[in-house]
Amino acid sequence: MRPLLLLLAAACVAGCDSEKPSFREDLVLEAFFDTGRPMPDVLVRRTLPPSETLGDDRVDDAVVVLYDGFRADTLRPVPGKAGRYRASPRSDTVRASGHYALTLRRGNTTVSASTVAPPRLQLTAARVFPSATPERGVNFDLTGLGLGATVANGYFYAVDVELEWAARLDSALVVRANLRPSTEVSGTLFFPADVVVAEAAAGDARGAHRLWRRRYLIAVSGPDAPLPRHRVRVALVRGGGDYRRFVETRRTPTQRSPTSNVVGGLGIVAGVSADSLTLDVE
């Protein structure tokens, strides 16, 4: 599970009618420290003025420093990948409960952010439960949170995916489930992916484990159509409060950009732990 793309609009401050709008460039810093995996690449971009919306927002002339405890490492630009910086060598892995900080300097601008990597998450099982026959215009719960969504036309198979993992009941931790087909399935409708819930409240408890069911739909031609064979990739991500706020506000129409934990700039630097499996559905 790698890295989420930022869709950031340019910042404009409107003056009176006789004045031209001013523009302030912001630096955008993005990195996800995934517990148990190599140190992540750090992405650096900049916001663009309205006149350059199709321009290149990648930044390749910054100085990026990674702080791992008391150790500082100046990251190197990745050859051929503008805007991407990498620790060298990449032998170190992200530690559970490790404290990581980034400082970015470009010209007279400095931005910074820090995070703590969560305990490692591992899926112990994933199961699929497709409906026996297609249903028409049924009120399906596409969010997994008890919120129905009526599909008025056509026939659909409902496929429930149950995720199981050893849970951490720390009230500060959240989880996010994500389903995507790994093969093409015409007419598949998925529930909204950006649902983030407190880990202690996700799904149902089974001893020290949690069981969380999510649902998606597959459109078929009629009531006698068979379930299309396909594969689905399931992923579960554990994170903290900064990760939750970022995910939940990425598509908020009233915000210029997602809620950020970057001081002096935009973006997200978050500790996460992710695991994924690919399942056959037939």
Structural class: mainly beta
Count of structural domains: 2
How many strand elements? Answer: 22
Query: What helical percentage do the residues reach?
Result: under 10%
CATH hierarchy, class of the largest domain: Mainly Beta
Order of helices and strands: EEEEEEEEEEEEEEEEEEEEEHE
CATH topology of the largest domain: Immunoglobulin-like
Dominant shape: globular
Mean pLDDT: 83
For the biggest β-sheet, the strand order reads 7-8-4-3-22-21-16-18
CATH architecture of the largest domain: Sandwich
Distance between the termini: 25 Å
Task: Specify the number of helices.
Answer: 1
The whole-angstrom Rg is 22 Å
Describe the structure.
With 282 residues, the chain is mainly β. The protein folds into two domains: 12-117 and 249-270, Immunoglobulin-like, CATH 2.60.40; 123-239, no CATH class. The chain has one helix and 22 strands. It has one helix spanning 241-249; strands at 12-13, 22-23, 27-34, 42-46, 63-68, 71-74, 76-77, 84-86, 99-106, 109-116, 123-130, 135-136, 139-141, 148-150, 155-166, 174-181, 188-190, 196-198, 204-206, 209-220, 230-239, 266-281. The protein has an eight-stranded mixed β-sheet with strand order 7-8-4-3-22-21-16-18, covered by helices on one side. A hairpin with a 7-residue loop joins β3 and β4 (42-46).
